[in-house]
Amino acid sequence: xxxxxxxxxxxxxxxxxxxxxxxxxxxxxxxxxxxxxxxxxxxxxxxxxxxxxxxxxxxxxxxxxxxxxxxxxxxxxxxxxxxxxxxxxxxxxxxxxxxxxxxxxxxxxxxxxxxxxxxxxxxxxxxxxxxxxxxxxxxxxxxxxxxxxxxxxxxxxxxxxxxxxxxxxxxxxxxxxxxxxxxxxxxxxxxxxxxxxxxxxxxxxxxxxxxxxxxxxxxxxxxxxxxxxxxxxxxxxxxxxxxx
Length: 244
Ligand SMILES: [Zn+2]
Known about the structure:
It is built from 7 helices and 8 strands. Strand 4 (133-140) and strand 5 form a beta hairpin. The protein is of the alpha+beta class. The longest helix is centred in the C-terminal third of the chain and has 16 residues, at 174-189. Zinc ion (ZN) is lined by residues 79-81, 83, 86, 88-89. InterPro entries: CRISPR-assoc_RAMP_Csm3 (IPR013412), CRISPR_Csm3_endoribonuclease (IPR052216), RAMP_III_fam (IPR005537). One of its GO terms (biological process) is defense response to virus.
C-alpha cells in the first residue's frame, strides 16, 4: 500500500577536507589544458555539487559495502532490479524501464551550493577564479616512465556546500531505508566525491546535519519543518544513525 505518510528533510554542510575535483575523471586525455572541469552553476558562476553525482556516489558506496546483495548480480554495472522490496532500488531509484509496484523513489538529492562564507573566502584568495583553483600534476606513464603534465581544476580544501535531501516515507519499512541513507553518507565520508579520489581528492565530511519532518497536516496547515534532530545534539551521519 503506497500512501504518503511524511517527508524528512536531511540538510547540513558538505565540508571539502581535500580539494574537490568534480566532473570527468579520465586520465587519458591530451597534454595540458584543464580537462576536468568542476560543474559551474550557470547563473551564479560558482561550482556546485550536482545532486545526481552525490546520489550516485551514495548509491555506489552502498553497492560496494553490500556487494553480496547488490553488486554481484549486477556484473559491475549499477544495480537495478524488479524486486519491489529491494531497499537500494526503492530508496535510490530504478531504471525508467523497470515497472515495479514499489511507489516513487524515496530519496531526492538537491544540488549542493557553496555557502556564503565559502563564496566570500573564494573572492579573497589568490589563484581562485569562480571558486576553483588550477593545480598542475605529473602523470607517469607506467611503461615508459614519461611524465605528462596535466592540470586539474578543483574546488579548494576547506570549502563548504549546503546540501539538502528529501526522503519520503510511504510505508513503515521506509524508516529503515532512511537509516540506509545515513549509512551511505557515512561510507561516502571514507570514500571520495568527484574524480581522482585515489590521488587524495574529494575527501568530504557531512556536518551540521539536521533532520526535520512534515506530515500531511503540516502541509495542509502551512506549518514549517519540525526538527527531529537538534542542532545542539548529534549532527554527524554516524552520530544520528547511532541515535535513531
Ligand atoms: Zn534492487
